[in-house]
Protein backbone atom coordinates (compact mmCIF):
# COMPACT_ATOMS: atom_id res chain seq x y z
CA UNK A 1 0.00 0.00 0.00
CA UNK A 2 2.87 2.28 0.83
CA UNK A 3 4.47 1.65 -2.55
CA UNK A 4 1.21 2.40 -4.32
CA UNK A 5 0.95 5.71 -2.49
CA UNK A 6 4.52 6.57 -3.46
CA UNK A 7 3.87 5.75 -7.11
CA UNK A 8 0.84 8.05 -7.08
CA UNK A 9 2.87 10.76 -5.34
CA UNK A 10 5.60 10.35 -7.95
CA UNK A 11 3.18 10.83 -10.79
CA UNK A 12 1.51 13.85 -9.21
CA UNK A 13 4.85 15.51 -8.52
CA UNK A 14 5.82 15.29 -12.16
CA UNK A 15 2.29 16.11 -13.13
CA UNK A 16 2.53 18.91 -10.83
CA UNK A 17 -0.07 17.39 -20.05
CA UNK A 18 -0.79 16.87 -23.26
CA UNK A 19 -1.12 19.62 -19.94
CA UNK A 20 -2.29 19.15 -23.38
CA UNK A 21 -5.74 17.99 -22.56
CA UNK A 22 -8.68 20.15 -23.57
CA UNK A 23 -9.08 23.36 -21.53
CA UNK A 24 -12.00 24.87 -23.35
CA UNK A 25 -13.09 26.95 -20.35
CA UNK A 26 -9.72 28.67 -20.13
CA UNK A 27 -9.10 29.06 -23.86
CA UNK A 28 -9.54 32.71 -24.98
CA UNK A 29 -10.74 33.70 -21.48
CA UNK A 30 -8.17 36.45 -21.79
CA UNK A 31 -8.88 38.12 -18.46
CA UNK A 32 -6.92 35.16 -17.03
CA UNK A 33 -3.16 35.37 -17.80
CA UNK A 34 -2.86 31.57 -18.07
CA UNK A 35 -4.82 31.80 -21.34
CA UNK A 36 -1.49 32.85 -22.86
CA UNK A 37 -0.30 29.24 -22.43
CA UNK A 38 -3.14 28.03 -24.65
CA UNK A 39 -2.71 30.74 -27.27
CA UNK A 40 0.43 32.93 -27.24
CA UNK A 41 -1.48 35.25 -29.62
CA UNK A 42 -4.41 35.91 -27.28
CA UNK A 43 -5.32 39.49 -26.32
CA UNK A 44 -3.26 40.84 -23.42
CA UNK A 45 -5.03 43.70 -21.60
CA UNK A 46 -2.42 43.73 -18.82
CA UNK A 47 0.44 46.05 -17.96
CA UNK A 48 2.00 43.18 -16.04
CA UNK A 49 0.99 40.05 -14.17
CA UNK A 50 2.53 37.67 -11.66
CA UNK A 51 1.15 34.32 -10.68
CA UNK A 52 1.20 33.35 -7.01
CA UNK A 53 3.97 30.69 -6.89
CA UNK A 54 2.59 27.13 -6.87
CA UNK A 55 -0.97 28.53 -6.72
CA UNK A 56 -1.25 30.38 -10.03
CA UNK A 57 -2.45 27.37 -12.00
CA UNK A 58 -3.51 23.90 -10.97
CA UNK A 59 -5.50 21.55 -13.17
CA UNK A 60 -6.57 17.94 -13.04
CA UNK A 61 -8.49 15.83 -15.55
CA UNK A 62 -9.52 12.16 -15.56
CA UNK A 63 -11.80 10.14 -17.76
CA UNK A 64 -12.81 6.80 -19.22
CA UNK A 65 -14.59 6.68 -22.54
CA UNK A 66 -16.28 3.29 -22.34
CA UNK A 67 -17.23 2.45 -18.76
CA UNK A 68 -17.93 3.99 -15.36
CA UNK A 69 -17.53 2.78 -11.79
CA UNK A 70 -21.29 2.45 -11.52
CA UNK A 71 -21.38 0.06 -14.49
CA UNK A 72 -19.47 -2.51 -12.46
CA UNK A 73 -20.24 -1.80 -8.83
CA UNK A 74 -23.86 -0.58 -8.82
CA UNK A 75 -26.06 -2.50 -6.37
CA UNK A 76 -28.44 -3.78 -9.04
CA UNK A 77 -28.57 -7.48 -8.19
CA UNK A 78 -26.51 -8.54 -11.22
CA UNK A 79 -23.54 -10.80 -10.60
CA UNK A 80 -20.19 -8.99 -10.91
CA UNK A 81 -18.77 -11.58 -13.29
CA UNK A 82 -21.76 -11.13 -15.59
CA UNK A 83 -21.39 -7.34 -15.53
CA UNK A 84 -17.66 -7.62 -16.15
CA UNK A 85 -18.23 -9.84 -19.16
CA UNK A 86 -21.01 -7.67 -20.60
CA UNK A 87 -19.64 -4.20 -19.81
CA UNK A 88 -15.88 -4.76 -20.12
CA UNK A 89 -15.03 -7.83 -22.19
CA UNK A 90 -17.91 -7.49 -24.66
CA UNK A 91 -18.59 -3.78 -24.18
CA UNK A 92 -15.21 -2.11 -24.70
CA UNK A 93 -13.17 -1.86 -27.88
CA UNK A 94 -9.60 -0.94 -28.75
CA UNK A 95 -10.44 2.78 -29.04
CA UNK A 96 -11.80 3.07 -25.50
CA UNK A 97 -9.39 5.02 -23.32
CA UNK A 98 -8.62 5.34 -19.62
CA UNK A 99 -6.46 8.23 -18.57
CA UNK A 100 -5.76 11.35 -16.62
CA UNK A 101 -3.62 14.45 -16.78
CA UNK A 102 -2.54 17.26 -14.54
CA UNK A 103 -0.54 20.44 -14.40
CA UNK A 104 0.88 22.67 -11.71
CA UNK A 105 2.54 26.02 -12.36
CA UNK A 106 5.61 26.89 -10.35
CA UNK A 107 5.70 30.52 -11.47
CA UNK A 108 4.35 32.70 -14.28
CA UNK A 109 5.35 36.33 -14.92
CA UNK A 110 4.48 38.74 -17.71
CA UNK A 111 5.16 42.40 -18.47
CA UNK A 112 4.63 44.95 -21.23
CA UNK A 113 7.72 46.44 -22.84
CA UNK A 114 8.26 50.10 -21.99
CA UNK A 115 10.02 50.74 -25.30
CA UNK A 116 7.64 48.62 -27.39
CA UNK A 117 4.22 48.89 -25.71
CA UNK A 118 2.66 46.63 -28.34
CA UNK A 119 4.83 43.74 -27.07
CA UNK A 120 3.98 41.66 -24.02
CA UNK A 121 6.58 39.23 -22.66
CA UNK A 122 5.85 36.26 -20.44
CA UNK A 123 7.94 33.47 -18.95
CA UNK A 124 7.65 30.77 -16.33
CA UNK A 125 7.88 27.12 -15.45
CA UNK A 126 5.27 24.42 -15.02
CA UNK A 127 5.15 20.68 -14.61
CA UNK A 128 2.66 18.48 -16.40
CA UNK A 129 1.96 14.86 -17.04
CA UNK A 130 -0.58 12.40 -18.35
CA UNK A 131 -1.35 8.70 -18.58
CA UNK A 132 -3.33 7.24 -21.47
CA UNK A 133 -4.19 3.54 -21.64
CA UNK A 134 -6.24 2.12 -24.50
CA UNK A 135 -8.22 -1.04 -23.87
CA UNK A 136 -6.43 -4.13 -25.33
CA UNK A 137 -9.65 -5.60 -26.70
CA UNK A 138 -8.36 -8.81 -28.31
CA UNK A 139 -5.93 -9.70 -25.55
CA UNK A 140 -8.63 -9.17 -22.91
CA UNK A 141 -10.94 -11.59 -24.73
CA UNK A 142 -8.09 -14.12 -25.03
CA UNK A 143 -7.32 -13.87 -21.32
CA UNK A 144 -10.98 -14.11 -20.27
CA UNK A 145 -12.26 -16.76 -22.71
CA UNK A 146 -9.11 -18.61 -23.70
CA UNK A 147 -8.35 -19.92 -27.18
CA UNK A 148 -10.24 -23.23 -27.25
CA UNK A 149 -13.52 -21.61 -28.28
CA UNK A 150 -11.86 -19.02 -30.54
CA UNK A 151 -10.32 -21.18 -33.24
CA UNK A 152 -9.08 -19.32 -36.33
CA UNK A 153 -9.57 -15.93 -34.65
CA UNK A 154 -6.55 -13.67 -34.91
CA UNK A 155 -5.96 -11.82 -31.67
CA UNK A 156 -4.21 -8.62 -32.72
CA UNK A 157 -1.20 -7.31 -30.80
CA UNK A 158 -1.89 -3.91 -32.37
CA UNK A 159 -4.44 -3.41 -29.57
CA UNK A 160 -1.54 -2.80 -27.15
CA UNK A 161 -1.27 0.99 -26.87
CA UNK A 162 -0.30 3.05 -23.84
CA UNK A 163 1.57 6.25 -23.09
CA UNK A 164 2.47 8.29 -20.04
CA UNK A 165 4.89 10.96 -18.97
CA UNK A 166 5.84 13.64 -16.51
CA UNK A 167 7.79 16.64 -17.77
CA UNK A 168 8.91 20.03 -16.49
CA UNK A 169 8.60 22.91 -18.96
CA UNK A 170 10.54 26.20 -19.02
CA UNK A 171 9.03 28.74 -21.38
CA UNK A 172 9.39 32.27 -22.74
CA UNK A 173 6.84 33.97 -24.99
CA UNK A 174 6.29 37.17 -26.96
CA UNK A 175 2.83 38.53 -27.71
CA UNK A 176 2.58 41.38 -30.23
CA UNK A 177 -0.35 43.53 -31.28
CA UNK A 178 0.36 44.25 -34.93
CA UNK A 179 -2.66 46.51 -35.43
CA UNK A 180 -6.30 46.77 -34.43
CA UNK A 181 -7.09 43.54 -36.27
CA UNK A 182 -4.15 41.23 -35.62
CA UNK A 183 -2.47 39.99 -32.44
CA UNK A 184 0.15 37.26 -32.85
CA UNK A 185 2.42 35.38 -30.49
CA UNK A 186 5.04 32.67 -30.14
CA UNK A 187 6.49 30.77 -27.20
CA UNK A 188 9.76 28.83 -26.93
CA UNK A 189 9.91 25.81 -24.63
CA UNK A 190 12.62 23.74 -22.99
CA UNK A 191 11.49 20.31 -21.76
CA UNK A 192 13.07 18.35 -18.92
CA UNK A 193 11.58 14.86 -18.87
CA UNK A 194 11.05 13.20 -15.49
CA UNK A 195 9.83 9.88 -16.86
CA UNK A 196 8.10 8.51 -19.93
CA UNK A 197 6.74 5.24 -21.25
CA UNK A 198 5.19 4.58 -24.63
CA UNK A 199 4.03 1.56 -26.58
CA UNK A 200 2.44 2.25 -29.95
CA UNK A 201 2.29 1.01 -33.54
CA UNK A 202 2.68 -2.61 -32.42
CA UNK A 203 2.11 -5.41 -34.92
CA UNK A 204 1.48 -9.13 -34.80
CA UNK A 205 -1.13 -11.66 -33.79
CA UNK A 206 -1.85 -14.89 -31.94
CA UNK A 207 -4.08 -17.51 -33.56
CA UNK A 208 -5.13 -21.08 -32.75
CA UNK A 209 -6.00 -23.45 -35.59
CA UNK A 210 -6.52 -27.17 -36.07
CA UNK A 211 -3.26 -29.07 -35.83
CA UNK A 212 -1.88 -32.23 -37.38
CA UNK A 213 0.02 -34.13 -34.68
CA UNK A 214 -2.08 -32.63 -31.89
CA UNK A 215 -5.56 -31.20 -31.61
CA UNK A 216 -4.55 -27.50 -31.71
CA UNK A 217 -1.78 -25.49 -33.39
CA UNK A 218 -0.75 -22.14 -31.91
CA UNK A 219 0.92 -19.38 -33.93
CA UNK A 220 2.45 -16.23 -32.51
CA UNK A 221 3.86 -13.44 -34.68
CA UNK A 222 5.03 -10.40 -32.68
CA UNK A 223 6.64 -7.02 -33.19
CA UNK A 224 5.96 -5.25 -29.89
CA UNK A 225 8.01 -2.47 -28.27
CA UNK A 226 7.71 -0.58 -25.00
CA UNK A 227 10.10 2.36 -24.63
CA UNK A 228 10.75 3.85 -21.20
CA UNK A 229 13.02 6.50 -19.72
CA UNK A 230 13.29 7.38 -16.04
CA UNK A 231 10.84 4.64 -15.07
CA UNK A 232 13.42 2.07 -13.99
CA UNK A 233 15.09 4.55 -11.63
CA UNK A 234 11.76 5.08 -9.87
CA UNK A 235 11.11 1.33 -9.68
CA UNK A 236 14.58 0.70 -8.22
CA UNK A 237 13.99 3.23 -5.44
CA UNK A 238 10.57 1.80 -4.61
CA UNK A 239 11.91 -1.75 -4.51
CA UNK A 240 14.55 -0.75 -1.95
CA UNK A 241 11.72 -0.03 0.54
CA UNK A 242 14.18 1.59 2.95
CA UNK A 243 13.75 4.36 5.47
CA UNK A 244 15.01 6.89 2.92
CA UNK A 245 12.72 5.82 0.07
CA UNK A 246 10.55 8.93 0.13
CA UNK A 247 13.56 11.30 0.35
CA UNK A 248 15.40 9.44 -2.40
CA UNK A 249 12.34 9.62 -4.62
CA UNK A 250 11.90 13.35 -4.00
CA UNK A 251 15.57 14.00 -4.81
CA UNK A 252 15.29 12.00 -8.03
CA UNK A 253 12.19 13.90 -9.14
CA UNK A 254 13.76 17.28 -8.40
CA UNK A 255 16.97 16.40 -10.22
CA UNK A 256 15.17 15.17 -13.32
CA UNK A 257 12.73 18.10 -13.26
CA UNK A 258 15.47 20.74 -13.23
CA UNK A 259 17.39 19.77 -16.37
CA UNK A 260 18.75 16.52 -14.93
CA UNK A 261 16.49 14.38 -17.09
CA UNK A 262 16.20 13.94 -20.82
CA UNK A 263 15.92 17.28 -22.61
CA UNK A 264 13.97 18.58 -25.56
CA UNK A 265 12.83 21.77 -27.25
CA UNK A 266 9.59 23.00 -28.76
CA UNK A 267 7.42 26.01 -29.53
CA UNK A 268 3.84 27.33 -29.54
CA UNK A 269 2.33 29.79 -32.02
CA UNK A 270 -1.04 31.52 -32.17
CA UNK A 271 -3.07 34.53 -33.26
CA UNK A 272 -6.26 36.52 -32.72
CA UNK A 273 -7.86 38.23 -35.73
CA UNK A 274 -10.88 40.52 -35.71
CA UNK A 275 -13.14 41.02 -38.69
CA UNK A 276 -16.07 43.32 -38.59
CA UNK A 277 -16.59 45.17 -35.36
CA UNK A 278 -17.32 42.40 -32.87
CA UNK A 279 -16.28 39.10 -34.45
CA UNK A 280 -13.01 37.29 -33.88
CA UNK A 281 -11.23 34.11 -34.89
CA UNK A 282 -8.34 32.61 -32.96
CA UNK A 283 -6.05 29.64 -33.44
CA UNK A 284 -3.01 28.13 -31.78
CA UNK A 285 -0.63 25.23 -32.31
CA UNK A 286 1.00 23.98 -29.10
CA UNK A 287 3.95 21.75 -28.25
CA UNK A 288 5.52 21.44 -31.67
CA UNK A 289 8.74 19.80 -30.56
CA UNK A 290 10.52 16.70 -29.31
CA UNK A 291 12.43 15.16 -26.39
CA UNK A 292 15.66 13.26 -26.98
CA UNK A 293 15.92 10.40 -24.49
CA UNK A 294 19.53 9.47 -23.79
CA UNK A 295 19.69 8.46 -20.10
CA UNK A 296 17.90 6.14 -17.65
CA UNK A 297 16.50 4.19 -20.63
CA UNK A 298 15.11 0.68 -20.59
CA UNK A 299 13.27 -0.55 -23.67
CA UNK A 300 11.41 -3.85 -23.96
CA UNK A 301 10.95 -5.73 -27.23
CA UNK A 302 9.14 -8.89 -28.30
CA UNK A 303 9.96 -9.70 -31.90
CA UNK A 304 9.77 -12.89 -33.92
CA UNK A 305 7.45 -15.75 -34.83
CA UNK A 306 6.69 -19.10 -33.16
CA UNK A 307 4.65 -22.16 -34.13
CA UNK A 308 3.82 -25.15 -31.98
CA UNK A 309 1.26 -27.86 -31.54
CA UNK A 310 1.55 -28.13 -27.81
CA UNK A 311 3.27 -31.09 -26.18
CA UNK A 312 3.62 -33.95 -28.63
CA UNK A 313 3.17 -37.37 -27.01
CA UNK A 314 3.46 -40.69 -28.79
CA UNK A 315 1.34 -43.32 -27.08
CA UNK A 316 2.02 -45.58 -25.39
CA UNK A 317 5.80 -45.21 -25.49
CA UNK A 318 6.01 -41.70 -23.94
CA UNK A 319 3.77 -42.46 -20.98
CA UNK A 320 6.70 -43.79 -18.98
CA UNK A 321 8.93 -40.82 -19.94
CA UNK A 322 6.39 -38.00 -19.39
CA UNK A 323 7.74 -35.34 -16.94
CA UNK A 324 7.97 -31.58 -16.37
CA UNK A 325 11.05 -31.32 -18.58
CA UNK A 326 8.78 -31.71 -21.60
CA UNK A 327 6.85 -28.56 -20.59
CA UNK A 328 10.08 -26.67 -19.95
CA UNK A 329 11.32 -27.61 -23.40
CA UNK A 330 8.11 -26.14 -24.83
CA UNK A 331 8.62 -22.86 -22.95
CA UNK A 332 12.28 -22.69 -23.99
CA UNK A 333 11.28 -23.28 -27.59
CA UNK A 334 8.86 -20.32 -27.53
CA UNK A 335 11.47 -18.05 -25.94
CA UNK A 336 14.01 -19.04 -28.56
CA UNK A 337 11.64 -18.33 -31.43
CA UNK A 338 10.21 -15.08 -30.03
CA UNK A 339 12.89 -13.53 -27.80
CA UNK A 340 11.86 -11.05 -25.12
CA UNK A 341 14.76 -8.58 -24.96
CA UNK A 342 15.69 -5.29 -23.31
CA UNK A 343 18.03 -2.56 -24.52
CA UNK A 344 19.16 0.95 -23.63
CA UNK A 345 19.00 2.51 -27.10
CA UNK A 346 18.40 6.26 -27.25
CA UNK A 347 15.22 7.45 -28.93
CA UNK A 348 13.26 10.59 -29.80
CA UNK A 349 9.61 11.20 -28.97
CA UNK A 350 7.54 13.93 -30.56
CA UNK A 351 5.42 16.06 -28.27
CA UNK A 352 1.64 15.55 -28.41
CA UNK A 353 0.81 18.46 -30.72
CA UNK A 354 -2.38 20.34 -29.86
CA UNK A 355 -4.55 22.48 -32.13
CA UNK A 356 -7.07 25.04 -30.86
CA UNK A 357 -9.30 27.21 -33.02
CA UNK A 358 -12.32 29.33 -32.17
CA UNK A 359 -14.89 31.80 -33.45
CA UNK A 360 -16.30 34.44 -31.13
CA UNK A 361 -18.95 37.13 -31.50
CA UNK A 362 -19.35 39.88 -28.91
CA UNK A 363 -22.54 41.78 -28.27
CA UNK A 364 -23.60 44.33 -25.69
CA UNK A 365 -21.44 47.45 -25.59
CA UNK A 366 -19.04 47.75 -22.64
CA UNK A 367 -19.67 50.78 -20.50
CA UNK A 368 -16.31 52.07 -19.27
CA UNK A 369 -16.37 54.00 -16.06
CA UNK A 370 -14.27 57.10 -15.73
CA UNK A 371 -13.51 59.22 -12.77
CA UNK A 372 -12.49 62.85 -13.10
CA UNK A 373 -10.57 64.62 -10.39
CA UNK A 374 -10.16 68.40 -9.93
CA UNK A 375 -6.89 68.34 -11.87
CA UNK A 376 -8.72 67.04 -14.95
CA UNK A 377 -6.86 63.74 -15.09
CA UNK A 378 -8.79 60.62 -16.03
CA UNK A 379 -8.40 57.23 -14.44
CA UNK A 380 -8.93 54.56 -17.10
CA UNK A 381 -11.08 51.67 -15.95
CA UNK A 382 -10.25 48.03 -16.61
CA UNK A 383 -13.42 47.89 -18.67
CA UNK A 384 -11.73 49.91 -21.42
CA UNK A 385 -9.29 47.03 -21.92
CA UNK A 386 -12.05 44.49 -22.52
CA UNK A 387 -14.24 44.30 -25.60
CA UNK A 388 -17.21 42.25 -24.45
CA UNK A 389 -20.16 42.23 -22.11
CA UNK A 390 -21.57 39.12 -23.77
CA UNK A 391 -19.85 36.70 -26.12
CA UNK A 392 -20.91 33.51 -27.89
CA UNK A 393 -18.96 31.20 -30.11
CA UNK A 394 -17.49 27.78 -30.77
CA UNK A 395 -14.13 26.09 -30.37
CA UNK A 396 -12.35 23.14 -31.99
CA UNK A 397 -9.75 21.17 -30.04
CA UNK A 398 -7.50 18.42 -31.43
CA UNK A 399 -4.60 16.53 -29.88
CA UNK A 400 -2.34 13.82 -31.26
CA UNK A 401 -2.43 10.56 -29.31
CA UNK A 402 -0.96 7.07 -29.77
CA UNK A 403 -4.03 5.99 -31.76
CA UNK A 404 -4.16 9.18 -33.81
CA UNK A 405 -5.88 12.56 -33.35
CA UNK A 406 -8.62 13.08 -30.79
CA UNK A 407 -11.06 15.95 -31.20
CA UNK A 408 -13.63 17.92 -29.20
CA UNK A 409 -16.18 20.57 -30.18
CA UNK A 410 -17.36 23.26 -27.77
CA UNK A 411 -20.06 25.92 -27.81
CA UNK A 412 -19.70 28.70 -25.25
CA UNK A 413 -21.35 31.76 -23.77
CA UNK A 414 -19.35 34.34 -21.86
CA UNK A 415 -20.62 37.23 -19.71
CA UNK A 416 -18.88 40.03 -17.84
CA UNK A 417 -20.55 41.62 -14.82
CA UNK A 418 -18.92 44.99 -14.21
CA UNK A 419 -15.21 45.06 -13.43
CA UNK A 420 -15.27 42.34 -10.80
CA UNK A 421 -16.84 39.17 -12.11
CA UNK A 422 -16.91 37.27 -15.39
CA UNK A 423 -18.16 33.80 -16.13
CA UNK A 424 -18.06 31.37 -19.04
CA UNK A 425 -20.28 28.37 -19.64
CA UNK A 426 -19.52 25.65 -22.18
CA UNK A 427 -21.10 22.60 -23.78
CA UNK A 428 -18.56 20.11 -25.12
CA UNK A 429 -18.85 16.94 -27.17
CA UNK A 430 -15.91 14.51 -27.22
CA UNK A 431 -15.16 10.81 -26.87
CA UNK A 432 -15.71 10.91 -23.12
CA UNK A 433 -19.10 12.58 -22.99
CA UNK A 434 -21.93 14.03 -25.10
CA UNK A 435 -23.31 16.01 -22.16
CA UNK A 436 -20.31 17.90 -20.83
CA UNK A 437 -21.49 21.22 -19.38
CA UNK A 438 -18.79 23.39 -17.82
CA UNK A 439 -18.72 26.64 -15.86
CA UNK A 440 -15.84 29.00 -15.23
CA UNK A 441 -15.73 31.98 -12.86
CA UNK A 442 -13.15 34.76 -12.86
CA UNK A 443 -13.03 37.16 -9.91
CA UNK A 444 -11.00 40.38 -9.88
CA UNK A 445 -10.71 41.93 -6.41
CA UNK A 446 -8.44 44.94 -6.87
CA UNK A 447 -5.17 43.57 -8.27
CA UNK A 448 -5.92 40.02 -7.06
CA UNK A 449 -7.25 37.64 -9.68
CA UNK A 450 -8.84 34.29 -8.82
CA UNK A 451 -10.38 31.81 -11.24
CA UNK A 452 -12.20 28.50 -10.82
CA UNK A 453 -13.12 26.34 -13.83
CA UNK A 454 -14.97 23.02 -13.66
CA UNK A 455 -16.09 20.66 -16.42
CA UNK A 456 -18.86 18.08 -16.69
CA UNK A 457 -20.98 19.59 -13.91
CA UNK A 458 -23.83 17.16 -14.57
CA UNK A 459 -21.48 14.32 -13.66
CA UNK A 460 -21.00 15.67 -10.13
CA UNK A 461 -24.59 14.71 -9.29
CA UNK A 462 -23.55 11.06 -9.67
CA UNK A 463 -19.76 10.77 -9.71
CA UNK A 464 -19.63 6.93 -9.93
CA UNK A 465 -21.69 7.17 -13.14
CA UNK A 466 -19.54 9.90 -14.69
CA UNK A 467 -17.10 9.36 -17.55
CA UNK A 468 -15.12 12.55 -17.02
CA UNK A 469 -14.06 15.12 -14.43
CA UNK A 470 -11.96 18.28 -14.73
CA UNK A 471 -10.99 21.10 -12.37
CA UNK A 472 -8.76 24.19 -12.75
CA UNK A 473 -8.06 27.09 -10.39
CA UNK A 474 -5.40 29.70 -9.67
CA UNK A 475 -4.37 33.07 -8.24
CA UNK A 476 -2.64 35.99 -9.99
CA UNK A 477 -1.71 39.59 -9.33
CA UNK A 478 -2.58 41.80 -12.30
CA UNK A 479 -1.90 45.41 -13.23
CA UNK A 480 -4.16 46.43 -16.13
CA UNK A 481 -3.26 48.66 -19.05
CA UNK A 482 -3.82 52.32 -18.26
CA UNK A 483 -3.61 51.79 -14.47
Computed structural class = alpha+beta
Annotation field: number of helices: 7
Describe the global form.
Answer: globular
Q: What number of structural domains do the residues give?
A: 1
Q: What is the N-to-C order of secondary-structure elements (H for helix, E for strand)?
A: HEEHHEEHEEEEEHHEEEHEEEEEEEEEEE
Gyration radius, in Å: 27 Å
Mean pLDDT: 83
Strand content: over 45%
Annotation, overall tally of beta strands: 23
Task: Report the uncertain regions.
Answer: 1-20, 313-319, 369-381
Question: Biggest sheet, in brief?
Answer: 21 strands, antiparallel
Q: Assembly state here?
A: single chain
The share of residues in helices is 10-25%
Our measurement of the CA-to-CA distance between the termini, rounded to an integer number of angstroms, reads 54 Å
Explain briefly what this protein structure is.
The protein has 483 residues and is α+β, with helices and mostly antiparallel strands. The protein has helices at 2-14, 69-73, 80-89, 137-145, 231-240, 245-260, 324-337; strands spanning 46-51, 58-64, 97-112, 119-134, 155-156, 162-177, 182-199, 203-210, 216-229, 262-275, 279-293, 299-308, 340-343, 347-350, 354-363, 370-372, 378-380, 390-401, 404-417, 421-429, 436-445, 448-455, 468-480. β21 (436-445) and β22 (448-455) form a beta hairpin.
Task: Kindly describe this structure.
The chain is an alpha+beta fold. The protein has one domain. It is built from seven helices and 23 strands. The strands form two sheets. It has a 21-stranded antiparallel beta sheet that branches.
Short descriptors:
single chain, 483 residues, alpha+beta, 21-stranded antiparallel beta sheet, two-stranded antiparallel ribbon, 23 strands, globular
Amino acid sequence: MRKQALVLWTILCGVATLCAQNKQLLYDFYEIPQSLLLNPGVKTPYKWHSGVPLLSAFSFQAGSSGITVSDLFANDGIDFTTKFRNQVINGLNKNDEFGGSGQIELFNIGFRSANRPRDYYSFGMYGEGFISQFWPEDLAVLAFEGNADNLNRRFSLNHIAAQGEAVNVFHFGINRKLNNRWTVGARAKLYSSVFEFKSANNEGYFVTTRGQNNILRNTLVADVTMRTSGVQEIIDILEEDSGTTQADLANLLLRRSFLGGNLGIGFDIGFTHSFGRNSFITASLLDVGFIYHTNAIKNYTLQGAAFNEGVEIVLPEDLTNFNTEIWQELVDDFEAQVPFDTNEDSYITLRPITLNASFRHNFGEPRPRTKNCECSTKVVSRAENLDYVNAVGGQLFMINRVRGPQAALTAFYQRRLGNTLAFKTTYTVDKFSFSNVGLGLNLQAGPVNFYLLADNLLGYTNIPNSHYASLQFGFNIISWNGN
